[in-house]
Amino acid sequence: MPLRPNRSSSGFKNIGILNFLRKILVAVLLPVLSANLSFGAERTFKVPGFTHPFRVTTERNQPGGFTMVKDPLDQYNAAKVFKFSINPGPCVQDDCEQQSARATVQQGRKAKQPKEAWYGWDMYFVPDFPIGSKQVRGHEIFVEFKDQDQCQLVALTTNPHSNDQFLSWSMEKPSGKQMTQFGGDCINLFDMRVASIRELAGAWHRFELFVRWTREGDGRFLMFLDGKQVVDYHGVTCFSCDKLNYFLFGNYLCCTTGTKLVVPATVYYRYVSMAKSREALVWK
Which helix (H) or strand (E) holds 36? Predict the structure, then answer.
């Protein structure tokens, strides 16, 4: 009769404890690993209401510039929010031409927008967000639509040519000139002041935007900040929107005197969505 290994009762208890610990580790780590994979290996994700997926612009983003984290003002909320940070350091690939620093996510470049749509997002600027002379020369873009490669179409941005302590709703088109380190290749069509960044910093604020996309004169931009109307524009809203018009958001500091001079700047987003009506925007 073959000998059987002598297993004491304490040995069985240890095996049981190890199995129990393994189950706990799997339960805790699997969701974390899955979340990382969705932004790492695939680099694409869905945003409510948008038919085209978004992707992490890793070929231009500063390393580690985009992450998903807990709400900085509500640590009990389990839902993750978007965090975008730019920092001093070497430029990244073709952003070196204009010494730009960015951390953004965007729809696929073949995306187009519906004829009419509502867009919504919450933004949180950290209390020490650098504005005006506290940041290196350049203009900062946060929410943007693009229907051309060279310039923004419309964007929520700062404007160093007027007063970059304010957020503005700005529209551009290509000038036909060659791009330089400090721009010059785009014509600014309008620059509508939205809010003081200093007054927004330190709290979440809700933006709601209605757009009628058209190359004719019956287009519209209607923007609300915390329920108050801040933009009401009638006219042309795009130029090549029948071919492409993709949406991106994050933190993009363009056309600086040097990326190594960038002052650290972080902005958060949550509840980004698109809908057919204002009431259908997602706020949870």
Answer: helix 9-39
**Cα(148)–Cα(103) distance, integer angstroms:** 20
Query: Using one digit for the tens of pLDDT, what is the confidence trace for 90-131?
Result: 999 989 988 999 999 999 888 999 999 999 999 999 999 998
Residue 124 CA to chain centroid, in angstroms?
A: 12
174-223 per-position pLDDT tens digit: 887 777 666 667 889 999 999 999 999 999 999 999 999 999 999 999 99
233 backbone dihedrals φ, ψ, rounded to 5°: -115, 135
Range of 72-81, 130-139, 184-193, 259-268 with top mean pLDDT = 259-268
Mean pLDDT (whole number) for 27-32: 37
Q: Which residue has the tokens 């040519």?
A: 161
What is the b/e burial string over 128-149, where b = at least 16 CB atoms within 10 angstroms of the residue's CB? ebbbeeebbebbbbbbbbbbbe
81: which residues sit within 8 A by CB, 6+ positions away?
68, 69, 70, 71, 72, 124, 268, 269, 270
Q: How many CB atoms lie within 10 A of CB 35?
A: 13
Burial of 207 (0-12, 13-18, 19+ CB in 10 A): buried
Amino acid (1-letter code) at residue 192:
M
